[in-house]
Structures are given as structure tokens and as C-alpha cells.
Amino acid sequence: MQLYNKLSAKERAELIDSVGANRLTLSFYQYAKIGNPQIFRDHLYITWDNLDVLGRIYIAHEGINGQLSLPADRFNAFKTHLDSISFLKDIRLNVAVEQDNKSFLKLKVKVRDKIVADGLNDDTFDVTNIGVHLEAKQFNTFIEDENTVLVDMRNHYESEIGHFKNAVTPDVDTFRDSLDIIEDDLKSHKEDKNLVMYCTGGIRCEKASAYFKHKGFKNVYQLEGGIIEYTRQVKEQQLENKFLGQNFVFDDRRAERISDDVISNCHQCGSPFDSHTNCANEACHLLFIQCDACREKMDNCCSEDCKEISNLPYKEQKELRKGKGNSNQVFKKGRSENLKYKD
Ligand SMILES: [Zn+2]
Ligand SMILES: [Zn+2]
Hints:
343 residues; disordered N terminus; 11 helices; four-stranded parallel β-sheet; binds zinc ion; five-stranded mixed β-sheet; alpha/beta; 30% helix
């Protein structure tokens, strides 16, 4: 599936015909000054709800970040609406590699302080002074250069199931943590090495590259459009794919397969496996990797304790949770001592 804003109207029409009534999953972001995020939010919600858009969209004074799905036959109307908004005109839409009609179940448009929770104080550096964007082909050349340090800007549970060959994958739970670790590791190479970074759809690298330039790195590059756009270009231009495994995504699909390599293991038995699940105990909900055999054996749970709780009648489970804080670990740490094979 390929669909992006460079298609002519005719090509787009043909493509949408071929998809029929199916839904398209896509994402986009844009840093832009938005004066009144609440009014903008309401406008988007009303328009997109009418188009049967589902997904999760964040709006802040600094811009918009959206992941969504919509019926293919509504795509033209959606695109026309985007083009009617000055800072979204002709924006690149990252379209998912694997289409799935169930990627999102609701439309949520939320006003936030920031469009990515990056933990940075933007007033301390110039966020517009970003690194050089690389297309897939250039990126492939750069990462073969021995003067390049390739860094994965995502969190540990994302890079664990898929990453570029030879990438440094910081073992971090948050974006903010990775910045300090990378700076420290590379502090003696700020001028002589190429710092090349990537993330899922490119948005995290926009901030990270500006931050590293502010910290004195001279040669800062980033993969434009992230792994999603890289994969599209690799297919379209028949380039060598240097990404191994699955691309973790933040919707109900959890990941999309980019190569057949399975580079991670089930956290419970150690056998090769690369799909995440959430612990079935509502009070735990830990994100971890569990193979089919372990899933069956453990009733979808991360530990014997959770299995015991999740098999209790719902009323008793609720009783147990009373007074305890809500421990929702969906996209959080993904770490637990019960998981023997989690590094
Ligand atoms: Zn297993
Ligand atoms: Zn659990």
C-alpha cells in the first residue's frame, strides 16, 4: 500500500478504488504556531468526525501530531480539508505499510502542552535549527560510512523488536533520558563524527537534532519521515532494506513487519518472538513480549500473580484494586523482574 501526497489526483483515485471500503492508517505531524489550540481542536474534531476519522491527535501551541485511520473513499475530502489549513497544505502523510481496518477504534483530539512529551525546555535552545534531512537512499549511504554513529531515538521496547543494522539503541524508558546518554557517549566526537538519527515517523528527531546542534554537535542528520517513510521509499525505489524486524507503532496493531528477521525473544521462555502484548491483569497491563505458547500457558499474563488475579471474578478484581493507584503500563516501562528473558 502506498499513498502519499505526491500522487496525482488520478493516481489517488485509482488507488482509492482499489482499496474499496477499507480504512487507511496514516500519520503526520507539523511544528507550527497555533494561537488557540482549543478552537483548532474543536474545528478538527467536528470536521473529521463527519469523515469517520478515527485515531489520536494531539494539538498544542507548538503544532499538531496525529495518528489516524479513515475510510479510503473519504481520503480526498480529508486531504482537501488538510490543504485548506495553511500549515498543513501539502504535508507529507506517512501511510502505514500494513493496512488494518482496526488500527483505531475512537476519534480522540486532545489539547496538550506539547505534541510530543519530550521533557525539554524549548526556551533554552533554537528548536528550528534542526539537522539535515536524509532520504532513504542517502541514509543507506551514510550509515555505511565508518565516520557515522547511527542512533535510534526511540525507547527500549521499540528498538527491541526492530532497528537498523549497527544502530546504537539506548536502553531508555523516555526520550529525555536518551538525549543525555547519547551526548555523554559521543562527547569526544562532537566534531568528527556524523550523528545520524532516526525514529518511527521523524517527529522525535526534529527536536533531538536541534538539541544536539545546540549541544555542539557539528554534523547532525536525521531520517526524514522516520522508519515509516524509509520503508515506503525502499519499496518504491527498490533500495536495499537495512531495517531488521518490526516497526513498533502506537496503535492497536502494535507493530508492522519490515523484514522477516526476528531479533527479539519471548520474555518468558526466551524463544525467538517479536510481538508485544499487555498483561491481561487490568491492574498490571505491563507491555511485554510473549510467544503464543506462553500466552496460552499464562492466560496472557506477565506473572503467576497476575494470572491468579486475572482469573478471579471481575468484582473481586475490582475489590483488590480499591485504594491503589492506577498502574497502567501500556506504553511505559515494559520492565518487570518476573520476565526472565527481558535484558
Ligand atoms: Zn514464550
Ligand atoms: Zn502482569
